Amino acid sequence: MKLKFSLAVLALLVISGCRTVRPVTAVHIQENISINANLPEDPEFVKVIVPYKKELESKMNTKISYTSVDLTKQGDNSNLGNLLADFTLQGAEEWAKKNGKYSVDAAVINVGGIRSMIGKGDILTRHIYEVMPFENEIVIVKMSGKQLQGLYDYYIATQKNNPVAGLRIETDAGKPVKFQIGGKPVVLNQKYYIATSDYLSTGGDQMDFFKSGEIISTGIKMRDLFLEKFAAVPQIQVPSDIRLIFKNKPNKSNE
Question: What is the pTM assigned to this prediction?
């Protein structure tokens, strides 16, 4: 047993001795460079981008419309939220008619996707980019009235002020009261077409009910549509109708 152990140790020593030891010749310590206002500009780079910067600034500061009131997303029937929901419905409806399709019944967007407000006064291109910085696309979801019940259940459960167009949703203390589409009660075996964003259609913001429907792509970017709609009128007329009614709302918070 001792002989076997000795032979094993000897073999290890021989193997170790055959290995080539590579010495560390040098250690290079790199200095971390902090990117901040003190870092000098590259004059050649600045020269190249200046024309593009000026063109972009000019485009972003172009007036496209005017509003006599602040456009915000606050409240269950926010003026900006309802306006953008209307634009979404109009854009989807125009696309459907142009392509010889069905009529679009309603629209649903998420308040969290509205990232800014638009103050009273001139509306500039950059304001729309600030409101909608994402590359979301408008889609149309084909659903039965029965599947659409999931939308109503969502609003009953969340009491959230996600803007709608073409819909009237009413609850009282978290209980269902009224659910209408196009001013009429929802018919369970009827087909409906709902315009929304590609984000929500795949279950974003916990809107899983959309996943039961058939998704139809329009190829329309929401921001492009909003730019077009704002630019189409010299002065914005905000919607004044009531769409979401949450009486005795358990959760008083709104975005």
Answer: 0.79
